[in-house]
TrEMBL record:
Residues of the signal peptide: none
Keyword Transcription regulation carried by entry: yes
Domain of life of the organism encoding this protein: Bacteria
Record SUPFAM superfamilies: Dimeric alpha+beta barrel (SSF54909), Winged helix' DNA-binding domain (SSF46785)
Gene Ontology cellular component terms for the protein in this record: cytosol
Organism, as annotated: Agromyces rhizosphaerae
Molecular-function GO terms, alphabetical: sequence-specific DNA binding
Lineage: Bacteria, Bacillati, Actinomycetota, Actinomycetes, Micrococcales
Domain HTH asnC-type: residue ranges: 4-65
Protein name: AsnC family transcriptional regulator
Record flagged with keyword Transcription: yes
Length: 154
């Protein structure tokens, strides 16, 4: 992905404000032709500027009202196998490899505390996992955003 120019940033800022905007609506809002917006969007998508759109789906209506973060300590030589096994757990919605004392930070959704206990047990049962530390998410205080970065970019 190359650097974004001013037009790309305008387009991404408009999309951040209204992720459901159509190409026609974006073109009107930005004073550009539909073809220009469509070509820019296609290029940005091809170059990997967009993350998965799954993020916009709320797990609560699916029956998963609780969210937790599980810090996973792993025997290093087993990291890839542990990640593959964790990816097989449907309630795992995201995981990051970390530097420092914790190896993985796993974000999970669950139905209730008993379900969280079950999910934590599944992770603990994976060969190569040494221990976990689980924290229940109390609420999202700053949602994922890039608007401030887009506003600041040169």
């Amino acid at each position: 992905m190359g650097r974004l120019d001013a037009v790309d940033r305008q387009l991404l800022t408009a999309l951040a404000a209204d992720p459901r905007a159509t190409v026609v609506a974006l073109a009107e809002r930005l004073g550009m032709s539909r073809n220009t917006v469509q070509a820019r969007m296609a290029r940005l998508e091809r170059e990997g500027a967009f993350l998965s759109f799954d993020r916009a789906i709320d797990p609560e209506p699916l029956g998963y009202p609780l969210e937790a973060f599980i810090a996973v300590h792993v025997r290093q030589k087993r990291l890839a196998e542990v990640v593959d096994a964790i990816a097989g757990i449907p309630e795992v919605v995201q995981a990051h490899g970390l530097s420092g004392a914790v190896d993985l930070l796993v974000r999970v959704v669950c139905r209730d505390a008993h379900d969280l206990f079950r999910i934590d047990g599944l992770i603990l049962a994976i060969d190569g996992v040494e221990r976990t530390e689980t924290s229940l998410a109390m609420g999202e205080l700053i949602p994922y955003r890039l608007g401030p970065l887009l506003d600041r970019a040169d």
